[in-house]
Structure prediction request, 505 residues.
Amino acid sequence: MNPIAIARVCLACLSLLSGPLLAQSGEPIAEPDLVRLAEELAEELADPVIPEWVRLAPASITNDSEAQAAAGAVYYQSDDSHYDAASRTYFNRVIITLNNESGVEDHSQIDFTFDPAYQTARFHSLRVHRDGEVIDHLPAQSFRVLRREEDLDRLCYDGRVSAIAILKDTRVGDSIEYSYSITGANPVFGDYLYRSFSTAYSVPVGKETIEARFPKSMQQSIHYRQHVTDYQPSIEEGDGHIIYRWEINDAKPVLSEGSIAYDHDVWGWIEFSNYKDWSAVARWDHQQYRFDQKLPAPFQAKIDELLTITSEEERASAALRYVQDDFRYLGIFEGAHSHRPYPLETIIERRFGDCKDKSLLLVTLLRNVGIQADPALVDTDYRAGVKKRLPSHAAFDHVVVRITLSDGSEVWVDPTRNYQRGRIRQIYFPDYRYALVVHPDTLDLSPLPLHDGSASKLVIVEEFDIPTYAGTADFTATFTYTGRYADSVRGYFVSESQAKIRDNS
Prediction:
């Protein structure tokens, strides 16, 4: 149901924490007992007392044979999602019925993800409903806390861990009821908040309840927007709070046909945000970047080298190639660094960084060689659909750079791409459609220039030399790659062995 509530089977047992810890002075301190830390977190998970502000109807198990048959391995009886802005707490209760052996195998493990650096997590209930009897597993349940790094294949690391309960003695026909809460928010966002809820899934749901609770003092600042859903909320005021509540009965599954436009929503959802506008998002994100940092010696040497290049465009091209080629991509998104770049000294010492780090590096480099540049936020998946969303930090998943040349023209570049060559005005930049420039004077999203399709192509010229019909012939094929195809084939030639390249030719 809710993406963080879906049980998963395959669990990669990675360490709870990684990397050396630093004291406030910056000096390394002794490594803690990582196993003990995980055990302590696990011991604190069980708490049968739900938050006092959560309003729950009694657990109800229905025997809708038609709906259960249509659901497959598991039928979602109900999904209750509650959010309290004052305490930054999310509460979720789910009741599922295991329809067959596959459901028992795949859904007898319950887990959710949180970041122990700034969040606390609790399991409030773990019950099995069987033949009219309710079996409470919470008192005797053992828990595990594991760090799994689910984005490891994308070279992304973060500090999140999974709280896991593996239930014993589950059977076909059982209904499992579980609830949990996660309290806390990343301090990088300060007083800003964002929360979203799904209203449609690829499986049927008996009853879904969504409740979002905000202090009345936030009534003027909080905004909500619905996407691909006609369900309307009830809005209550009282006890110093304003409460938005949706109740959805017998939600039919929504299936994606695939190959749909980037900005087309299939599943309904609701979002809340207290950013006033896109300008507020830009100002918040600008605070995460420090462009007045002391320049490390190797960085200053690179600046001095670039200053010897007289052509502005060639200087910009050389700066981009340096950041793209000399610093590999790797993201460590722990704590505030989910949205805040690491210091320049750290990036240069590591010689790696994510999109934020590499954008900070490139912008600082360009500004120090007399070229104006700014980071900019884009959404690589939703693209033009970002215009439909409420202003918030959650509307973006990538950072690029806008270069403003002395003639006033703009060039957009992505410092995380590899093997780009050619003049700065001609290199390939994806069609992200809109960007939010990270600058205190930004007022709105900026439309991005569409990529000229004719600039990215593969031209194949085949020549046959046939001197006689009875003799041998020569065949020559010339492949010319431009734009994104050239970027791709450069990467192919340096990553594959010559033998494999010859074999595939």
Notes: DSSP finds ten helices and 25 strands in the chain.
